[in-house]
Amino acid sequence: MMKSACIPAGIILLIVLLSPDVSGQVLNNPDGIPASNKQHKTHEWLPETPVYASGKKEIAGILESDYPKTANSFTKLFPGAKDQLWIKENNVLFACFLDNGHRTTAVFSVQGKMNYAIANINSSSLPRLVMEKIKREYSTYTIFNIKQITAFGTTVFQVVIENNCEYILIKATGDEIEEVEQLIKPKEK
After folding, report:
1. If you placed Cys at 26, which of 2, 77, 87, 96 could pair as Cys (CB 3.0 to 4.6 Å)?
2. What architecture (CATH level 2) is domain 3-19+122-184?
């Protein structure tokens, strides 16, 4: 079911760029963690990947020794991960990294279970059938942003398309697409 709303274009841009992806914020050093302390290598079972305390510059632990189940799960799920930054908040570990060139955030329990992962992707990473349907049904629109969300063994794509008048949020699961929300752009003066 489509929901229609008149929300200024700047608000939707802010929502798309800031929710729920925190990887850009973390990779751009929000906690003031010195860049020299961050891992900038492919994860090839690094012996001492630091895990930082949320909101602090101090190391809260070492991923491989303090959270081995999480390290194992992460390595299996994201074998080519680069530029990792790990932050621990309560009993949750947040990993921000590049996966196949896509900025990604994954959230794990300290027991090693991945809760979810969100990646900013490009259109070439969308399933072919989804891309074909979007092109066919929204031929006058261009892709503004795409997120790939993986949780509970399911992958969903959130695609924001735009034209001169509006943004449309599309949810894609499997090869089906559904229009979730339509946001009218404000008229320029």
Report:
1. 96
2. Roll (3.10)
pLDDT band at 60, cuts 50/70/90? Answer: confident
CB 98 within 8 A of CB 80: no
Nearest to 52 by CA among 69, 36, 31: 31
β-sheet bridge partners, residue 167: 162, 183
3-class SS of residue 56: coil
pLDDT digits (tens, 9 = 90+) for 119-154: 999 999 999 999 999 999 999 999 999 999 999 999
* Tens-digit pLDDT profile for residues 86-116: 999 999 999 999 999 999 999 999 999 999 9
Joined together, the tokens standing for residue 136 give 């066919």
Q: What residue ranges do the domains of the chain occupy? A: 3-19+122-184, 31-115
Tokens of 126: 């969308």
Helical H segments across the chain, by residue range? 9-18, 23-27, 63-66, 68-77, 128-137
| Closest C-alpha among 75, 111, 66 to residue 91 | 111
